[in-house]
Specification:
Low-confidence stretches: none
Helix content: 40-55%
Mean pLDDT: 94
Bound molecules: S-adenosylmethionine
CATH architecture of the largest domain: 3-Layer(aba) Sandwich
Shape: globular
Largest sheet: 7 strands, mixed
Strand content: 5-15%
Length: about 375
């Protein structure tokens, strides 16, 4: 990505949380109304064909069909020729995608992008192409297929089906890792400016982002606070990706890249720590290890900022319940209520401080070292 594009994304205005939540509630209302005007079997049909939805969207994402249509509408056979696919199957696939509201069909039979399919364009702000590709990969689908058994025995999907963690599978497959990293990055870019605005970083000198990925949050924070230095702590392979991003963000000279595992230790020397959407990827035993290692690196009074999903009694979006199920079936993690997080902080030498809501059913939970 060019430096200008990175700067634009990191400084783009963030809609207020109450507007985002109101939009999500309104969407839920309309979806319920849509169910109310048809017989129940029609609504259920759409849901039990969910695997078809996943694979249709996965195929469109993987073949980058939305990208192909940015130059203008195309016939199914033309899309097939450009994507190296069978023309008959492409036509039928496109019609099925149109039936679920992704792409539109013009009166001359050509297909075009619509508002929804634009979310599948590569590099779109907040785009979901990467995750749409990731979640349809066969090992992920096979893990989901274990749910009836998991309901009986409580065992996690991916680990039981494949005998290893999804993270190890990703590390071995560069295409899958790239799809996941793309999805994660676009999701993080949307909230990074809100995280940078949520905390008075002018009070600290060095921020360490634990499991910080390519450094998107660190980039948003360091660009907003020019006095700050950063430590980006992640696996060696992730940090290789990070260098190019931090250079494009114009902050590479203010960031130390530290490879390592948060299960072994966390770098000392920062006066503020961050760990975004990492804890929900792990079960309690691992989270305790990560939090203890963070606490060991911190001085009393220092803060660990934990931007993560916000479990609320009224789940007005599918986002958090689905993330929780993905934790069970794919990542080997879970979503935790603010009360549960507070307990885990207490057990690891931290105490819950403020909670700042973020757009998209997320919040920054502040853990203070005691
Ligand atoms: C869900 S991603 C979150 C990335 C980033 N915090 C964000 O929100 O965009 C989880 C991150 O944890 C990193 N990670 C996984 N296991 C790790 C370990 N043992 N030690 C350090 N980082 C790890 C991954 O490489 C990945 O960047």
């Amino acid at each position: 990505m060019s430096p200008v594009a990175v700067a634009q994304r990191l400084e783009s205005p963030v809609p207020p949380v109450f507007i985002v939540n109101a939009a999500l509630r309104l969407r839920r209302f309309f979806l319920r109304m849509a169910d109310a005007v048809v017989p129940s079997y029609m609504s259920v049909y759409d849901r039990f064909m969910g695997a078809a939805h996943t694979m249709l969207v996965h195929s469109a994402a993987r073949l980058r069909i939305a990208d192909l249509l940015t130059a203008g509408p195309l016939h199914g056979a033309e899309i097939a020729a450009r994507a190296g696919c069978d023309a008959d199957v492409m036509e039928r696939t496109m019609l099925a995608l149109v039936s679920i509201g992704i792409f539109r069909r013009l009166s001359d039979g050509r297909f075009a992008n619509n508002r929804t399919s634009k979310g599948l364009i590569s590099g779109a702000t907040g785009g979901v192409r990467g995750f749409a590709e990731f979640f349809g990969h066969e090992p992920v689908m096979r893990a989901w297929a274990r749910l009836p058994q998991t309901l009986q025995d409580g065992k996690q999907g991916f680990k039981e089906v494949h005998g290893r963690l999804a993270w190890d599978w990703m590390a071995d497959d560069t295409a899958v890792q790239a799809a996941f990293a793309e999805g994660m990055s676009s999701m993080t870019e949307v909230v990074a400016p809100a995280i940078a605005a949520a905390y008075p970083f002018n009070e600290v000198k060095t921020v360490c982002d634990v499991g910080g990925g390519v450094g998107i949050v660190l980039a948003a924070v360091l660009r907003k606070y020019p006095h700050l230095r950063g430590i980006l702590f992640d696996s060696e392979s992730m940090l290789r990706e990070a260098s190019a991003y931090l250079r494009a963000a114009g902050i590479a000279d203010r960031v130390d890249l530290v490879p390592g595992s948060f299960f072994d230790s966390v770098p000392r020397g920062a006066d503020c720590y961050l760990i975004k959407t990492v804890l929900h990827n792990w079960e309690d035993a691992e989270v305790f290890k990560i939090l203890r290692n963070c606490r060991a690196a911190m001085e009393p009074g220092q803060r660990l900022l934990v931007p993560d999903f916000l479990v609320m009694p009224d789940a007005f979006s599918t986002l958090v319940p689905f993330m929780d199920m993905a934790g069970l079936m794919i990542y080997c993690g879970r979503e935790r209520s603010p009360e549960r997080l507070a307990e885990m902080f207490t057990d690891t030498g931290l105490r819950m401080g403020r909670m700042v809501p973020l757009p998209g059913v997320q919040a920054v939970f502040e853990a203070v070292a005691v």
